[in-house]
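Throughout this chapter, every protein is written as a compact record of paired, labelled lines. An example of such a record is reproduced below:
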Amino acid sequence: MPGQDYNSISDTLSVQPPAQQAAVSTGLSDELLRPLLNPPPIDHRKEYRRIALHLIKFGAVLAALWILLDVVYESFPYTRSGVDIVIAAKAEQARTAPIFAPNAKIRLVVFGVSTAMTGFRPALFDSLFEGQVSSYNMAIPESKNVVAALQAMIARGEIPTHIFLTSPWLEVAPPSFFQPIPSDQQAAKLLFPFHWMPRDLAIFAIRSRSAGGIRKFYEHNRNITQQMIADRGWYFIEASSLFPDHRLPPDFHTSNDHPNLPDYRPPQNLGVEFNAMYKILEQHHIRAYVVPIYSRASGSCPPAPDKHPYLPDDSKFPLIKTIGPDYFLYPNELFSDPVHVNPDGATRYTRDLFTLVKSVLSADMNRLSTLSSANHK
């Protein structure tokens, strides 16, 4: 109030109740201050129900968004990257489609990564054996998982008699309580299968501009996938071809080339994947052969004559045998990029593989025929 000094106001407030002190100091009435100074008791159950309701609504929105993204992802499979399209198509073939011809004496599955996928032509290989062999190219880019495909085929009666291994099998740490899923990548793929969809859609849109538009590019991806299925898993990676006519120039080199040093297959670890694979071989009497893949002559020298053991002790695993050199060498003209062969290179590799395994598979055919005759007596 005008005319009062600070000390007189302080004396007045010091003898008043707190509510009146606040009213005097702030100029607010008792009615406005009472809810702040004496709040009503909180109903904790009601508050918990309110929080729970908000969490349920939030979870429902997330679930609806997850379902929507998954529906879009599954409805337009040919907008994905080429790797994902091939992986999904081959996994579907392993789960649902006929793999082998019914009357073939040898039922063969070839495993490996993209080099084997582009190199092995099942139709040509089978024709060289005059129909006695029925083969399928189950090689998948960026994947060395043998067990999953074998389990999927065997579960519906498509049991191979032989498998070819062109690259090391996948070895993962066994699941544990703290890490039930072996890798973060697998966890992301399991929980969010569409996590690469924004990237894939952006790349698809960019590439479609030079392919006649979105609809034509989508149909193109569908057609080449259907062609891969018709070719029994063989797939030429045309998108990675760097030069006209899908042939590298004779003088092509990369910084990773080492034409004076041989490559070799390093010894493999015997872990969870190997144990599961070998158990399947034993249960279904499947023979596995480790066979060569291929390399550029401008990038590697001929394989060393002294072979490096593929398994620590071959004698303990009689169902797995290594055949031939570590790799075949081919000229640049048989490659479409630094790593993968073109269709002519695939024909060359398939014929070389036939020449290498012909006597072994022929002997196995005779053995299987003898066993079959003995079982029918």
Summary: The chain has a mean pLDDT of 83. Residues 274 and 291 are 17 Å apart (CA to CA). The chain is about 45% helix and 10% strand.
